[in-house]
Every structure is written in structure tokens, then in C-alpha cells.
Amino acid sequence: MYQMKRLRWLLLWTVWPVATLTQPDTEADRLAQKSFNAVGGQEAWDGTRYLAFSFSAIRNSQQTPPIRHVWDRWEGRYRVSWKKGIDTTITVLFNVQNQQGKAYYNGVAAPEVQQKSLLSTAYRRFINDTYWLLVATKFFDPGVFRAAAPDSNTATTEVFTTSFGEVGLTPKDRYWFWVDKATGRIQQWAFVLQGNRDGKATYFRWEDWEALSCSKGTVWVSTRKVSPVNGNAILTNQVSCPIHIPPKVFENPEDGY
To answer: CA torsion angle for 135, 140, 144, 147 (degrees, to 10)?
Structure first.
């Protein structure tokens, strides 16, 4: 217990180096593959075409309105909806492969002058929110560099870190992952984002794991990430992997899922 508390304290208050890692690291690759296998592995995820989930935050015991995501992972079709104020729902229907689509307020097309901004917001929500849910499936994406961090290992976990080439929206982000030795699941992660000037890491425990029966096997997701500092949390919940989603969900803003 003392070791884990000390680890958390060090993680929260240490200024981490942010140099990009470029050399292959077989130990890091082993841990990354172990984590990927623990959430289902290649065959199960390759066979999962549709994914739906909600993203929200809990701050000071208050939950933000959930942002609803629906994704056709094979064709890139995407639907994301969120609240603006009390009585307005913004829905954006687009394709993540080319970022082309259309935004709506309460089912009515948004003014043309606002379309570009809303599409950009929707794409950023896709990048950010799916990363919180699916990071264990993305360790071997092009431009991701992995390195072991054995000095951070504990009796029950092994640690590796990722950095990035010139890919994504924030390529200077840096992440650390504590992998459970027994299960391969991520127990916690830490990150220093490129906009963080003081270099201090933010830490979340990964909790509330759920199994989803998808078309090519079982996949696992952590639906709650909790800060040990203040109890605030990120929820990636209400997750499903339906075999079929009607095309109108990606075409009509009034046909939700």
C-alpha cells in the first residue's frame, strides 16, 4: 500500500521528460501487445464494425451532459451529439476518413458560417473521446513509439510509455501505462499533454471493466477513469457493439441510436 501511495505521489508531482522515443523496444512491444490482447486482441477488434458509447465527466460530484458517439469503424461514418445549453442538441454527421459532413441544431442544418467550426469540434471529440475508451487498441498505430519504463514497475504492474511522431492533433503528448502483470489490463495511466507547460503528469485509475460480446469475440472496455487526487472521473460508458446499425443513423440527425 505504501509503495502504491508513493508511486502516485511521485507521478503526480514529477516533471516528466517529453523527448520523442524512436528506437524499437521489444519489452514495450510485449507490454503493449499484452494490453491489446487483454481487451480482445486483433481478431475481435477487426471484426467489430459498429461501436456506440457515451462520454462525460464527473467534477465535484456533478456529471456533465453525456456526449453520444456512434461509429461505423469499417467505413468511417460517424455520428456525435452533445448538448448546448438546456434545450439545444448539436448533432454532427460526418466521415472520420475525410472529415466531411454536416452539423445540425435540433435536427435543422446549422448556418453555413458555423459548419466548419462544428465539424472541427466533432472531429476533435472523436479523437479525444475514442482515445479514452480505446487506447489499448492503438498502441501499434503508425507514428506511435513505445518504450519500457522498468524503474516505475511495481510488484503487480509493469510500465511502458508512448510518444508520437508527427501524427494526430497533439503529437507532443506523452503517456505512461501501468499494465497488470496477471491480467494484462491497464490499471492506470498518466499523461503530459503538449499544452501543459509545467510538465506535470495527470493520473487516472482505470475502473469498471465491462465485457462486450461482439461479432468476432469478446472485447473489454474500462468505462470509468478516476483521479486519485479529487475523485473526478471520465466516463466512457453505455458502450455497445451492435451487429447492425441502420444507415439512417448516419444520415438523419433526428434518428438517434
So the answer is: 90
Q: Is the residue at 44 inside a domain?
A: yes
Mean of per-residue pLDDT scores for the chain: 88
Residue 180 predicted with pLDDT over 90: yes
Instruction: Name the residue with cell 487526487.
Output: 229
φ, ψ of residue 175 to 5 degrees: the values are -130, 150
- The set of cell numbers assigned to 8 is 502516485
93 and 110 Cβ atoms separated by less than 8 Å: no
What's the domain count of the chain? 1
- Which domain, by its residues, includes 215? 25-73+137-250
Residue 165: pLDDT band with limits 50, 70, 90: confident
Query: Is there a contact between 162 and 172 (Cβ–Cβ < 8 Å)?
Result: no
Residue 153 lies in a domain: yes
Which residue from 178, 116, 180, 170 is spatially nearest to 143, judged by alpha carbons? 170
Buried b (16+ CB within 10 A) or exposed e, 50-83: bbbbbbbebeeeeeeebbbbbbbbeeebbbbbbe
Residue 228 lies in a domain: yes
Query: Among 16, 28, 7, 56, which Cα is nearest to 172's?
Result: 16
* Burial category of 183 from C-beta neighbours within 10 Å (exposed 0-12, middle 13-18, buried 19 and up): middle
Query: In one letter, which amino acid is 248?
Result: K
Does residue 104 lie within any of the structural domains?
no
Q: What is the mean pLDDT of residues 20-47?
A: 88
Q: What is the pLDDT of residues 213-229, one digit of tens each?
A: 999 999 999 999 999 98
Over 50: is that where the pLDDT of 194 sits? yes
